[in-house]
Amino acid sequence: MEKMNVQPATGKLGVLCVGLGAVATTFMTGVLMVRKGLAKPVGSMTQYDKIRVGRGAEKKYLHYHEIVPMAELKDIVFGAWDVYPANAYESAINCEVLKEKDINPVKDELEKIVPMKAAFDRDYAKRLEGDNVKDCATRWDMVEALRKDIRDFKEANGCSRIVVLWAASTEIYVPVCEEVHGTLAALEQAMKEDDRRHVAPSMCYAYAALAEGAPFIMGAPNTTVDIPAMWEMAEKTRMPIAGKDFKTGQTLVKSGFAPIIGTRCLGLSGWFSTNILGNRDGLVLDEPANFHTKEVSKLSTLESILVPENQPDLYTDYYHKVRINYYPPRNDNKEGWDNIDIFGWMGYPMQIKINFLCRDSILAAPLCLDLVLLSDLAARAGRYGIQRFLSFFLKSPMHDYTQDEVPVNHLFQQYVMLKNAIREMGGYEADEEID
């Protein structure tokens, strides 16, 4: 294959995070500490993973940056929006994810990351009380204000490129409305008419990012970029979009473990998942309307891995339930329990129990880094629209449901997609050989 015309990663890369809470500050602090040689970017595929390229005598295993031109950590400049005015250092301390000794070495840099006023509508996150909020008359005014923020940040920091990452709380569920979300023209009209029911604040962020030539990543289960109007915007601006929801704890386990059941041709009677979480995300998800948004994304994982139509004897009418419970004492240390009822030879029942005591932001931070760097790479490679190769990092992968496309949730199939995209951008042959 000929090497794709991937533009070099020259100049500074601005990373604008929507939300300056636990996930964003853990991400920022980690990158800054790694740059100083004081920490390791454990969990980051772009920093650790190697991909096989070539076959036979030509076979070799290379880091991503050896295959394609990746932005370096030293070139990243951080900015943010948030409803609370605390700077990144204050927020990192308040979130209590990282120990103070692991934050203080980069205190000076974190203190300079002061959040811009957020484009916010409390109806979409009733549990948040912050007042660092823009005064916008309409959704279109929100878009224009956010576009100005992006332009000003880019100029003030001398950035050659920008990526916008949603690391804020889950909004209430916004069902897809064909009349508003079906075309870009209809969405723009709804923004100008201040249709607050169908246009979430997150849609204003996504539109503004794309309009300013910045890839947009949706790290929550919001329907923000999962609508035809936003796909059209991404095509028009030739910018990548990725989403939705960081695949951190329980869904990571589910997307990796369900293939074991399917590959071994064991049957499934039921899968019950429950979580306890005490951070800001847990607080917001304690609101039923916000939880429903998360529930939709978490429930979608199994159905494309263990498919009744493919194996009716094994996967017909299994029961799948997901629960999230706000439990303040745990803060960011989420606990996920899974009870899996399976059956085997002659229908005899068995059970599997999984208890994952994870740290939500510690798992999310490397995903943020990988999604930012790979979205920037995709933009420089001329890839635009839905970036399916990034499904590996996301809980509910984007797909064109208008064409009855089935999303790929199988972790190892997603890994093949990721590797092949890197190979192709680097001018190597795509394949599915296990290595």
From TrEMBL:
Residues 249-361 form the Myo-inositol-1-phosphate synthase GAPDH-like domain. Pfam families: Inos-1-P_synth, NAD_binding_5. One of its GO terms (molecular function) is inositol-3-phosphate synthase activity. It comes from the Bacteria. Keywords: Isomerase, Membrane, Transmembrane, Transmembrane helix. Its EC number is 5.5.1.4. InterPro entries: Myo-inos-1-P_Synthase, Myo-inos-1-P_Synthase_GAPDH, NAD(P)-bd_dom_sf. Belongs to the myo-inositol 1-phosphate synthase family. This is Inositol-3-phosphate synthase. GO terms for biological process: inositol biosynthetic process; phospholipid biosynthetic process.
